[in-house]
Design a protein that fits this description.
Elements: E1 2-9, H1 13-24, E2 33-36, E3 53-54, H2 65-84, E4 88-89, E5 93-97, H3 103-114, E6 121-124, H4 125-131, E7 139-143, E8 147-149, H5 151-164, E9 168-170, E10 173-181, E11 184-191, E12 203-214, H6 220-225, E13 239-248, E14 257-259, E15 272-275, E16 281-284, E17 288-289, H7 302-309, E18 321-331, E19 343-345, H8 347-350, E20 355-359, H9 365-379
Parallel strand pairs: 1-2, 1-12, 2-9, 5-14, 12-20
Antiparallel strand pairs: 3-8, 4-8, 5-7, 6-7, 10-11, 11-12, 13-16, 13-17, 13-18, 15-16, 19-20
Length: 380
Amino acid sequence: MDRFEVTIAGAGVIGLALAHAFTRSGRFQPEQILLVEQENRIGQHISSRHSEVIHAGIYYPPDSLKAQCCVRGKALLYEFCDSYEITYKKLGKLIISNESNSDGLVQLAANAEANGVTDLQWWDGHRLRREEPALRARSALFSPSTGILDSHAYMERLLQLARERGMVYAPNTRISAVQASAQGLEIVSETGNGRADMAVAASEFHFASELFINACGLQAQDMASRCLTMDSCHIPALFPCKGDYFSYSGRNPFRHLIYPQPEPNLRGLGIHSTQDLGGQLRFGPDACYVETLDFDVEADKASTYAEAIRSYFPAIEASRLQPAYAGIRPKLAGPGQAAADFQIAGPAQHGQPGLYHLFGIESPGLTSSLALAEKVLDLV
């Protein structure tokens, strides 16, 4: 039976960051690290369906994994982009209020400072009118360290670096079972997945691995259920939460990213204004709990979006909103529940040596990716 030191399931941004961290750590032989992905390309689910924002670390409870990994991850991500020529722009973000003295913004500023985010600036109505004449707001918190990046180029470079060091990458491969064995963990995989669009039928392959890391995003709970020694009581419930994005035709009137104040329980960050590196304006996402993983955009939401956006962009024209794409957050908290933190579940939580699961890696997962990989590396 073939044997690996480390198997990582899921080649989204978290799995790729793990591959990068583990192959460069010096603690494992890169040729003995396997990255498995059930799709034929990297980053096909959560990792390609978001705002591509590098977050500052403003919203998350102090000492939470989200706060720690966002702040640390932001620094690591900018450093990585500089080192490997990944395009990004520090546009800065405005979190706005239509009150001159907003208690909500005061609370956010205090929370950000507790998280170590000390560069926020207060902008009054005069400054906002000068900097963003198309915007309607009376006050705002400005985050100069918030930016956007080419997330696809980032993921491709992570994969390239890990493979250059010797890591084995196996796309079109599904893990069907993980069980304890005399050699650590025995893993059963299906190459080809048996999908109708695959030219070859699926073939079963058994191999051994000392460590197995589940970074499957929306499928993390399903993957955990295929770990045969894992008691279901250690698998948290999944609450998929969908958000649609709309692009906006015509000139982009904004220089910065524009965010309303976050929704209750941080269900979402509100329908905000973001843009890509070419300046194309986008709005979204909303936040709606769903039963099925359907990535179709609901085109008839355009008028509802326009109504929400008009509160800070009065000149918006609903006819210029066009469906773009949708994303689904793998939330661990359901409707009305307090926001849940990232979860890294290892042997200390579930008792199975060598087995690690990452649950609930939603926003700020992209920003946190390199820091989360550091956390997992420290744990193992």
